[in-house]
Amino acid sequence: MRLEGSLPGRSNAKRLRKQMTPPEIALWLALRDNEAGLRFRRQHAAGPYVLDFYCAPARLAIEVDGEAHNYGNRPERDATRDAWLIAQDIRVLHYPAREMLENLDDVVRQITAIAVRRRSIFEG
Fold it and tell me: How far from 57 is each of 51, 82, 110, 119, CA to CA, in Å?
């Protein structure tokens, strides 16, 4: 099953790729060159949402949560998005933005290990 985004979602994803935050850029550079050879997409449109990162073969979404995710209606919106993704059989990993700057290698190792396990389930 292919995870596709709506037209507004694709347009928003394109805009967001040009406005990535420093923590997102750091993670993107690390994920692009991972030892497992996994392919990740950045700012990937999925239904009405845009995922920070997505590994299609593993059906894995990675969200880099800055401080804004703790305020207003963001926690509720994030929970709604996550529930929709889970219903699509997508696992969602959340990492605080500061983790990208403080523990990037550990985060990448964790993401890669989970993605490799999940990829073997969906490809096997």
Answer: 15, 18, 17, 5
pLDDT digits (tens, 9 = 90+) for 28-47: 999 998 888 999 999 999 98
**Rounded Cα distance, 66 and 63, in Å:** 9
Helix (H) or strand (E) holding 83: helix 74-87
Per DSSP, the residues of 7-67 read: HHHHHHHHHHHTT--HHHHHHHHHHHT-TT----EEEEEEBTEEEEEEEGGGTEEEEEE-G
pLDDT digits (tens, 9 = 90+) for 64-93: 987 665 656 788 888 999 999 999 999 999
43 φ/ψ sector (left φ>0, alpha ψ -120 to 50, else beta): left
